[in-house]
Amino acid sequence: MSIIKVDTVQTVAGVEQARLVQVQTVNKATGFTTTSGTPVDITDFEVDITPTNAANKILVIVSGVMGNGSTGGYPCECKLVRVISGGATSNIAMGTSASDGTNNYTIFSILDTSWNTVPVNVVFLDSPNTTNEVTYKLQIEAGGGNAVWGRRGDDTTYSAHSSTTVMEIRT
């Protein structure tokens, strides 16, 4: 068996190539429900990564389902957020249609029945510009009724797997 060990991979011109540095992931097999009209963290669904170089990028991939626990066409909204070293929460991967920024979300859905779910898939390349620990998490809020993550809104026996994976990419 052969082993090749290198510190960097470079082009002929001596330019270091982009590469995967590290991967962290969190999995969630249970649902989460809120009636909050302001964003709240989805419990047990955050992932931490400490970049090795401030110039590196973080590729964030979120997969799951969201639903509504009430009939009547209430919206469910999700935000992908970042926290650096326990500091302030920053919204990332947001729409920009609302001029004041208050109604900009990563994912927005209006469900008219309590048994519907919407698949959620987010891929976002972040530039946190730090070598301090970075926490990525999803926040959800209800525009009326109940906002639900990871299961149907009307029945806790129907749940789905959710995951968030972060990858440090050397650039």
What does this structure look like?
The protein is mainly β. 0% of the residues lie in helices and 50% in strands. It has no helices and 11 strands. Strands 1, 2, 4, 8, 10 and 11 form a 6-stranded antiparallel sheet that branches. Strands 3, 5, 6, 7 and 9 form a 5-stranded antiparallel sheet that branches. A hairpin with a 4-residue loop joins strand 5 (74-84) and strand 6 (89-92). The model has no long low-confidence stretch (mean pLDDT 85).
Radius of gyration: 19 Å
Topology pattern, helix = H, strand = E: EEEEEEEEEEE
Strand content: over 45%
Give the fraction of residues assigned to helices.
Answer: under 10%
Tally the beta strands. Answer: 11
Indicate the low-confidence ranges by residue numbers: none
Distance between the termini: 31 Å
Number of helices: 0
Quote the average pLDDT: 85
Q: Main sheet?
A: 6 strands, antiparallel
Shape: elongated
Structure in a nutshell:
The protein is 0% helix and 50% strand. It is built from no helices and eleven strands. The strands form two sheets. Strands 1, 2, 4, 8, 10 and 11 form a six-stranded antiparallel β-sheet that branches. Strands 3, 5, 6, 7 and 9 form a five-stranded antiparallel β-sheet that branches.
